[in-house]
Amino acid sequence: MSQDSPMAFVSMKGVGHKYDPLPDAPMAVQDIDLDIKKHEFVSVVGPSGCGKSTLLRMVAGLLIPSHGEVSIFNHPVTEPRDDVGIVFQKANLLPWLTVRKNVLFPLKHKYGRYGTADEKRANELLEMAGLTQFADKMPDELSGGMQQRVGIVRALLLNPDILLMDEPFSALDALTREQIGFDLLDIWKKQPKTVLFITHSITEAVLLSDRILVMSKRPGTVLDLIEVDLPRPRSSNTINSSRFAELTDLIRGYIYEPNTPA
Ligand SMILES: Nc1ncnc2c1ncn2[C@@H]1O[C@H](COP(=O)(O)OP(=O)(O)OP(=O)(O)O)[C@@H](O)[C@H]1O
Protein backbone atom coordinates (compact mmCIF):
# COMPACT_ATOMS: atom_id res chain seq x y z
CA MET A 1 0.00 0.00 0.00
CA SER A 2 3.01 2.30 0.52
CA GLN A 3 3.69 4.53 -2.48
CA ASP A 4 7.25 5.43 -1.38
CA SER A 5 6.53 8.99 -2.43
CA PRO A 6 9.07 11.65 -1.43
CA MET A 7 6.06 13.91 -0.84
CA ALA A 8 4.76 11.75 2.02
CA PHE A 9 4.36 13.91 5.12
CA VAL A 10 3.53 10.89 7.26
CA SER A 11 4.84 7.44 6.48
CA MET A 12 4.05 4.16 8.21
CA LYS A 13 6.07 1.13 7.22
CA GLY A 14 5.23 -2.28 8.64
CA VAL A 15 3.82 -0.58 11.72
CA GLY A 16 2.50 -2.80 14.46
CA HIS A 17 2.11 -2.76 18.19
CA LYS A 18 1.89 -5.29 20.95
CA TYR A 19 1.10 -3.83 24.37
CA ASP A 20 2.09 -7.00 26.21
CA PRO A 21 5.78 -7.85 25.65
CA LEU A 22 5.26 -11.62 26.17
CA PRO A 23 6.22 -13.44 22.91
CA ASP A 24 2.82 -15.06 22.33
CA ALA A 25 0.77 -11.99 23.35
CA PRO A 26 -1.62 -10.75 20.63
CA MET A 27 -0.77 -7.77 18.47
CA ALA A 28 -3.11 -4.77 18.80
CA VAL A 29 -2.14 -3.42 15.36
CA GLN A 30 -0.25 -5.23 12.63
CA ASP A 31 1.50 -4.53 9.30
CA ILE A 32 0.22 -1.07 8.56
CA ASP A 33 1.77 0.53 5.49
CA LEU A 34 0.50 3.98 4.63
CA ASP A 35 1.92 7.16 3.17
CA ILE A 36 -0.06 10.34 3.70
CA LYS A 37 0.69 13.13 1.26
CA LYS A 38 0.82 16.87 1.84
CA HIS A 39 -2.62 18.29 2.69
CA GLU A 40 -4.30 14.95 2.26
CA PHE A 41 -7.26 14.11 4.49
CA VAL A 42 -7.08 10.44 5.47
CA SER A 43 -9.59 8.79 7.78
CA VAL A 44 -9.27 5.49 9.62
CA VAL A 45 -12.36 3.38 10.25
CA GLY A 46 -12.72 -0.08 11.71
CA PRO A 47 -14.52 -2.04 14.39
CA SER A 48 -14.22 -1.06 18.03
CA GLY A 49 -10.90 -2.18 19.49
CA CYS A 50 -9.20 -2.68 16.11
CA GLY A 51 -6.40 -0.30 17.06
CA LYS A 52 -7.38 3.04 15.48
CA SER A 53 -6.33 5.08 18.53
CA THR A 54 -3.20 2.98 18.93
CA LEU A 55 -2.25 3.90 15.36
CA LEU A 56 -2.91 7.59 15.97
CA ARG A 57 -0.91 7.56 19.19
CA MET A 58 2.05 6.06 17.32
CA VAL A 59 1.89 8.83 14.71
CA ALA A 60 1.58 11.39 17.53
CA GLY A 61 4.75 10.07 19.18
CA LEU A 62 2.79 9.17 22.31
CA LEU A 63 3.49 5.47 21.78
CA ILE A 64 6.53 3.89 20.14
CA PRO A 65 5.56 1.00 17.82
CA SER A 66 6.90 -2.38 18.81
CA HIS A 67 7.18 -3.23 15.09
CA GLY A 68 7.99 -1.11 12.04
CA GLU A 69 8.42 2.62 11.90
CA VAL A 70 6.39 5.80 11.70
CA SER A 71 8.17 8.76 10.17
CA ILE A 72 7.22 12.36 9.61
CA PHE A 73 9.13 14.30 6.96
CA ASN A 74 11.43 11.26 6.73
CA HIS A 75 12.36 11.40 10.43
CA PRO A 76 11.36 8.53 12.73
CA VAL A 77 8.80 9.64 15.29
CA THR A 78 10.21 9.13 18.77
CA GLU A 79 8.30 11.78 20.73
CA PRO A 80 5.51 14.34 20.24
CA ARG A 81 6.42 17.03 17.73
CA ASP A 82 5.52 20.73 17.60
CA ASP A 83 4.50 20.44 13.95
CA VAL A 84 1.81 17.90 14.82
CA GLY A 85 -1.44 19.12 16.39
CA ILE A 86 -3.82 16.74 18.13
CA VAL A 87 -7.56 16.97 18.73
CA PHE A 88 -9.12 14.40 21.04
CA GLN A 89 -12.71 13.28 21.62
CA LYS A 90 -13.16 15.90 24.32
CA ALA A 91 -11.84 19.43 23.94
CA ASN A 92 -10.70 19.39 27.59
CA LEU A 93 -10.79 23.17 27.84
CA LEU A 94 -9.58 24.68 31.09
CA PRO A 95 -12.80 25.89 32.77
CA TRP A 96 -11.17 28.85 34.52
CA LEU A 97 -9.78 30.40 31.31
CA THR A 98 -11.69 32.27 28.60
CA VAL A 99 -11.97 30.74 25.15
CA ARG A 100 -9.16 32.96 23.83
CA LYS A 101 -6.88 32.07 26.74
CA ASN A 102 -7.63 28.40 26.21
CA VAL A 103 -6.57 28.74 22.58
CA LEU A 104 -3.34 30.46 23.70
CA PHE A 105 -2.71 27.95 26.48
CA PRO A 106 -0.27 25.70 24.53
CA LEU A 107 2.09 28.70 24.18
CA LYS A 108 1.69 29.66 27.81
CA HIS A 109 2.37 26.08 28.82
CA LYS A 110 5.39 25.67 26.55
CA TYR A 111 7.07 29.08 26.82
CA GLY A 112 5.44 30.60 29.90
CA ARG A 113 4.13 33.55 27.85
CA TYR A 114 2.67 34.73 24.58
CA GLY A 115 2.85 38.01 22.68
CA THR A 116 0.52 40.29 20.75
CA ALA A 117 1.31 38.47 17.46
CA ASP A 118 0.12 35.24 19.10
CA GLU A 119 -3.06 36.93 20.32
CA LYS A 120 -3.63 38.22 16.79
CA ARG A 121 -3.26 34.71 15.39
CA ALA A 122 -5.63 33.33 18.05
CA ASN A 123 -8.18 36.03 17.12
CA GLU A 124 -7.81 35.24 13.41
CA LEU A 125 -8.31 31.52 14.01
CA LEU A 126 -11.31 32.17 16.24
CA GLU A 127 -12.80 34.36 13.54
CA MET A 128 -12.17 31.69 10.91
CA ALA A 129 -14.02 29.18 13.09
CA GLY A 130 -16.91 31.61 13.66
CA LEU A 131 -16.08 32.00 17.34
CA THR A 132 -15.13 35.67 17.60
CA GLN A 133 -18.14 36.61 19.69
CA PHE A 134 -17.32 33.81 22.14
CA ALA A 135 -13.61 34.66 22.59
CA ASP A 136 -14.15 36.23 26.02
CA LYS A 137 -16.69 33.66 27.23
CA MET A 138 -15.90 30.83 29.60
CA PRO A 139 -15.99 27.27 28.16
CA ASP A 140 -19.13 26.28 30.08
CA GLU A 141 -21.03 29.05 28.25
CA LEU A 142 -20.42 27.23 24.94
CA SER A 143 -22.23 24.26 23.41
CA GLY A 144 -20.37 20.96 22.96
CA GLY A 145 -19.93 21.63 19.24
CA MET A 146 -18.45 25.07 19.90
CA GLN A 147 -16.10 23.65 22.53
CA GLN A 148 -14.82 21.13 19.96
CA ARG A 149 -14.28 23.97 17.47
CA VAL A 150 -12.23 25.75 20.15
CA GLY A 151 -10.23 22.52 20.55
CA ILE A 152 -9.53 22.52 16.80
CA VAL A 153 -8.52 26.19 16.85
CA ARG A 154 -6.21 25.50 19.80
CA ALA A 155 -4.55 22.66 17.86
CA LEU A 156 -4.03 25.05 14.92
CA LEU A 157 -2.43 27.83 16.99
CA LEU A 158 1.13 26.63 16.45
CA ASN A 159 0.34 26.20 12.76
CA PRO A 160 1.15 22.48 12.66
CA ASP A 161 1.73 20.82 9.29
CA ILE A 162 -0.12 17.75 10.47
CA LEU A 163 -3.38 17.45 12.38
CA LEU A 164 -4.29 14.23 14.16
CA MET A 165 -7.91 13.88 15.22
CA ASP A 166 -9.08 11.00 17.42
CA GLU A 167 -12.87 10.67 17.19
CA PRO A 168 -13.19 14.44 17.68
CA PHE A 169 -16.95 14.57 17.18
CA SER A 170 -18.10 11.35 18.78
CA ALA A 171 -19.48 13.05 21.90
CA LEU A 172 -21.74 15.33 19.84
CA ASP A 173 -25.35 14.79 18.79
CA ALA A 174 -25.96 13.76 15.17
CA LEU A 175 -27.02 17.17 13.85
CA THR A 176 -24.16 19.06 15.49
CA ARG A 177 -21.82 16.36 14.29
CA GLU A 178 -22.82 16.76 10.67
CA GLN A 179 -22.54 20.55 10.89
CA ILE A 180 -19.12 20.48 12.55
CA GLY A 181 -17.96 18.11 9.80
CA PHE A 182 -18.74 20.86 7.28
CA ASP A 183 -17.11 23.42 9.60
CA LEU A 184 -13.97 21.28 9.66
CA LEU A 185 -13.90 21.09 5.85
CA ASP A 186 -14.19 24.87 5.77
CA ILE A 187 -11.33 25.29 8.25
CA TRP A 188 -9.25 22.72 6.34
CA LYS A 189 -9.81 24.67 3.11
CA LYS A 190 -8.69 27.93 4.72
CA GLN A 191 -5.80 26.39 6.66
CA PRO A 192 -4.74 23.36 4.61
CA LYS A 193 -3.27 20.60 6.77
CA THR A 194 -2.35 16.98 6.39
CA VAL A 195 -5.03 15.25 8.44
CA LEU A 196 -5.28 11.79 10.00
CA PHE A 197 -8.82 11.44 11.29
CA ILE A 198 -10.08 8.54 13.40
CA THR A 199 -13.81 7.94 13.40
CA HIS A 200 -16.48 5.35 14.10
CA SER A 201 -18.75 7.03 11.58
CA ILE A 202 -18.56 5.69 8.04
CA THR A 203 -20.59 8.58 6.64
CA GLU A 204 -18.34 11.11 8.36
CA ALA A 205 -15.25 9.40 6.92
CA VAL A 206 -16.69 9.44 3.39
CA LEU A 207 -17.89 13.03 3.66
CA LEU A 208 -14.55 14.40 4.85
CA SER A 209 -11.79 12.28 3.36
CA ASP A 210 -9.58 11.95 0.33
CA ARG A 211 -8.79 8.36 1.31
CA ILE A 212 -10.09 5.97 3.95
CA LEU A 213 -8.03 3.26 5.61
CA VAL A 214 -10.37 0.43 6.58
CA MET A 215 -8.99 -1.73 9.39
CA SER A 216 -9.86 -5.30 10.27
CA LYS A 217 -10.86 -6.40 13.73
CA ARG A 218 -8.02 -7.06 16.17
CA PRO A 219 -5.20 -7.41 15.30
CA GLY A 220 -6.02 -4.35 13.27
CA THR A 221 -4.51 -4.47 9.82
CA VAL A 222 -5.30 -2.87 6.46
CA LEU A 223 -8.39 -4.31 4.77
CA ASP A 224 -8.57 -1.62 2.13
CA LEU A 225 -7.44 1.88 1.35
CA ILE A 226 -10.31 3.55 -0.44
CA GLU A 227 -10.00 6.59 -2.67
CA VAL A 228 -12.98 8.90 -2.09
CA ASP A 229 -13.61 10.23 -5.59
CA LEU A 230 -16.38 12.64 -4.58
CA PRO A 231 -15.94 16.20 -5.84
CA ARG A 232 -15.13 19.05 -3.46
CA PRO A 233 -16.47 21.25 -2.01
CA ARG A 234 -18.73 18.72 -0.34
CA SER A 235 -22.17 19.58 0.97
CA SER A 236 -25.41 17.93 2.00
CA ASN A 237 -25.90 17.17 -1.72
CA THR A 238 -22.79 15.01 -1.51
CA ILE A 239 -24.46 12.89 1.18
CA ASN A 240 -27.48 12.36 -1.10
CA SER A 241 -25.41 11.27 -4.11
CA SER A 242 -25.40 7.68 -5.34
CA ARG A 243 -21.59 7.53 -5.22
CA PHE A 244 -21.72 8.48 -1.53
CA ALA A 245 -24.07 5.55 -0.91
CA GLU A 246 -21.81 3.18 -2.89
CA LEU A 247 -18.76 4.16 -0.87
CA THR A 248 -20.51 3.88 2.49
CA ASP A 249 -21.93 0.48 1.46
CA LEU A 250 -18.48 -0.72 0.44
CA ILE A 251 -17.04 0.19 3.84
CA ARG A 252 -20.03 -1.23 5.72
CA GLY A 253 -19.45 -4.48 3.88
CA TYR A 254 -15.93 -4.66 5.29
CA ILE A 255 -16.86 -3.74 8.81
CA TYR A 256 -20.06 -5.69 9.34
CA GLU A 257 -19.20 -8.76 7.26
CA PRO A 258 -16.31 -11.25 7.44
CA ASN A 259 -12.85 -9.74 7.06
CA THR A 260 -12.30 -10.55 3.42
CA PRO A 261 -11.59 -7.91 0.80
CA ALA A 262 -14.48 -7.43 -1.65
N1 LIG B 1 -2.62 0.84 27.19
C1 LIG B 1 -3.04 -0.34 26.75
N2 LIG B 1 -2.59 -1.50 27.29
C2 LIG B 1 -3.00 -2.70 26.84
N3 LIG B 1 -3.86 -2.86 25.82
C3 LIG B 1 -4.35 -1.76 25.24
C4 LIG B 1 -3.98 -0.45 25.67
N4 LIG B 1 -4.62 0.46 24.89
C5 LIG B 1 -5.37 -0.26 24.03
N5 LIG B 1 -5.20 -1.58 24.24
C6 LIG B 1 -5.84 -2.66 23.48
O1 LIG B 1 -5.43 -2.54 22.13
C7 LIG B 1 -6.52 -2.80 21.25
C8 LIG B 1 -6.73 -1.59 20.35
O2 LIG B 1 -7.22 -0.51 21.15
P1 LIG B 1 -7.51 0.91 20.53
O3 LIG B 1 -8.05 1.78 21.62
O4 LIG B 1 -6.35 1.38 19.77
O5 LIG B 1 -8.68 0.53 19.50
P2 LIG B 1 -9.76 1.49 18.80
O6 LIG B 1 -9.99 0.91 17.44
O7 LIG B 1 -9.33 2.90 18.87
O8 LIG B 1 -11.02 1.24 19.72
P3 LIG B 1 -12.38 2.08 19.82
O9 LIG B 1 -12.93 2.14 18.43
O10 LIG B 1 -13.23 1.26 20.73
O11 LIG B 1 -12.03 3.43 20.37
C9 LIG B 1 -7.72 -3.12 22.13
O12 LIG B 1 -7.84 -4.52 22.23
C10 LIG B 1 -7.37 -2.51 23.46
O13 LIG B 1 -7.94 -3.22 24.51
TrEMBL record:
CDD domains: ABC_NrtD_SsuB_transporters
Superkingdom, natural source: Bacteria
Keyword Repeat: no
Pfam families, per the entry: ABC_tran
Alphabetical list of PROSITE patterns matching this protein: ABC_TRANSPORTER_1, ABC_TRANSPORTER_2
Residue ranges annotated for the ABC transporter domain, each copy included: 10-242
One Gene Ontology term of the molecular function aspect: ATP binding
Keywords on record: ATP-binding, Nucleotide-binding, Transport
InterPro entries, per database record: AAA+_ATPase, ABC_transporter-like_ATP-bd, ABC_transporter-like_CS, ABC_transporter_ATP-bind, P-loop_NTPase
Family note: Belongs to the ABC transporter superfamily.
Name this polypeptide is given: ABC transporter ATP-binding protein
